[in-house]
Design goal:
Number of strands: 42
Number of helices: 12
Largest sheet: 6 strands, antiparallel
CATH superfamily of one domain: Transferase(Phosphotransferase) domain 1
Radius of gyration: 26 Å
Helix content: 10-25%
CATH topology of one domain: Transferase(Phosphotransferase), domain 1
Shape: globular
CATH architecture of one domain: Orthogonal Bundle
Strand order of the largest sheet: 1-2-3-4-6-5
Structural class: alpha+beta
CATH class of one domain: Mainly Alpha
Strand content: 25-35%
Amino acid sequence: MPHPLSHDDPSRIGPFMLVARLGSGGMGTVYLARSPGGRTVALKTMHHRFAAQPEFRTRFRLETDAARVIGGQYGAQVVDADPLADTPWLATAYVLGPPLDDAVALCGALPEPAVRAIGAALCDALGQLHRSDVVHRDLKPSNILVTATGPKVIDFGIARAAGDARLTQTGAAAGTPAYMSPEQATGGEHTPAGEVFALAGVLVFAATGRPPFGTGQPADLLYRVRYAEPELSAVPEGLRPTLERCLAKDPRQRPTTVELGARLREGTGDAVDHLPDAVLADIARRGAAVWEVRPSRLPAPDAENMSAVPDASRSPRLGRRRLLTAGGGLLVAGSAAAAWALLRDGSGKNGADSPRRGAARPGTGAPRIAWKTAGGAIGEDARLLRVGDGLAMVSESGLRCFDARTGKRRGVNDELVTDSCVVSDGRRLFALDPGPSTLRIVPVDFVTGTTRSPLATLRGIAAQDARILAATDSALIVEGKARKGWVRAAVDPGTGHEMWRCRMAVPGDDEIVATPVEAGLIRTQGEQVTLIDLRSGAPRWTAEVPEKLTGGLLVGARHTFSAGLLFLGTWELVALRLSDGKRAWGFGAGRTSGTGDKPGRRHYGPPVVQDGVVYAAERERGLVALDAGSGRLLWDQKKGDGPVLEFGATPAADDGYIYVSPDNDSQWAAAVDRRTHRVAWTFQSPLGDRGGGFSTIMTHSAAQRLIIGRGDAVCALPLP
């Protein structure tokens, strides 16, 4: 989805004129660009802060080499590159076609002949890589583009030579948990046999719409990949035995890409011959739309009136005559196959008559989608923050700000990635300055995304180890490493004056979640829950989660509290008193639900409270509703009464509904009626498989929107 260039993007890189942004991640930015002769390319660059580090330059060079190895038949043809430039860049042919996850979201599971043909072509692609001793290491649906000339493999950012153990500690993930091989999941060598395992997972997704080991938190997925059997009941019978062998835990039992390709190729033709019409129409639409993109640029940050970014998804609907005219341009660009694919059956269908990707596709009466957008780092989880009547999304693509009601783009800042710890006090944004080594807190302009003059400089605290926990009207709370140990400090958000600083215990490696409450700050990490006094920084009390629970509290779960109680989903559903941290009540002891009843397993998901009632997901059952004051069960869903819920997701609530995240890649949200206790509607994915273990759901009362995030994507529905 093209977006306007930023005010400080260059006009040219090498011989290419930049036209628009396609996406930006923690490592770099990808542009839509054109050569002097008019050829459209995707041009990838590296952020300056990484270009100064030799290991990242080496990785970029290896990515370029891998892209050259796979070539234009099975990947995006390398047009030009300069990995030694001050800003390293790589220009490849602009591939016309949706990612495989988008294709499945558009038309559902693909027919068996299409899956076979795609799989056979991907075996050829991987074989070409492996003959050059290169392994991709991150094969997944979003890294496979479906085109009129066959599937193409992209994104070689973590590819490397087989057997090369270097470059594994430079900050990139080692793969995507849902599609890792067991040996890769344990940190072992990812060989061509591991690529066969990943390819089988991709083909299961194409044939069923779900990965073979389901969805969920990375740790759960890695456990299933290593020890659980894949779920293949929905795979066509003709494919199942072959894919079962590919998914063997022992790499020696898997077929080679040559063997697998021969099995899949039997009785199939080219992949394009078996693709659904909706996918072919989408290929043609993309081919025509790329020539409609005109260079545009956001104004500089000091402009008084910042104009809203146009919604790039609202491209003009193309009639048949206009599409054929655009098709002439495609012939010049060497992309006649896209236009041919549209018209191959002579049926007269065109992109305007087929389903549009991104349109609202409710399962059972969901409200019509108000707006949607996506970042550039598919598979990376984003964090959502309320900022007045706006919304901020922080991911590996950087900071993106929106009008929460309309979805209009506001500020953008590619430097403020997730690790920069951006926080909101509900009205304003603050961040740690990503530049200097001295720790500085900077306000962030919501409209422009730019950082303002530093609000405070905290001397003696190392910037690289610091985190900003939370923001309130009266204090910004920071933790970091000083010369004599770890410290916690508070800064006045109005004056920048340091209010206090105190010593603290060395934090563990688990993720920290902090939420302001009354005059304190709830902080959870691992198994520990602490209430911090905002007047001094000292802990008022510290409690441990039930000892039966292994692995601590759910990572990233929002805190829920009401009427002096904090509610936690653990082995039981527990209420702790905010006054002293003591247990007020517990629910769930003795309740059973099947395979989830194993010692140390979390039985209840993170709860939400509404009108004196606590709601939480109970493993393998559904929602339970408890009286917040006493813990008394009010009602519960029986197994089969609604969708299987994603256990790690925090629900949201309003006067009428509880909004939950189903354990289903194609369903992003479901609304449970608080009166009838039944599912009123479900909301289907409008943006394909954007990664992420589950949906982040929140109500935005100021904008009257239900906000749903998945991976790096976010969309909004009107609240009733």
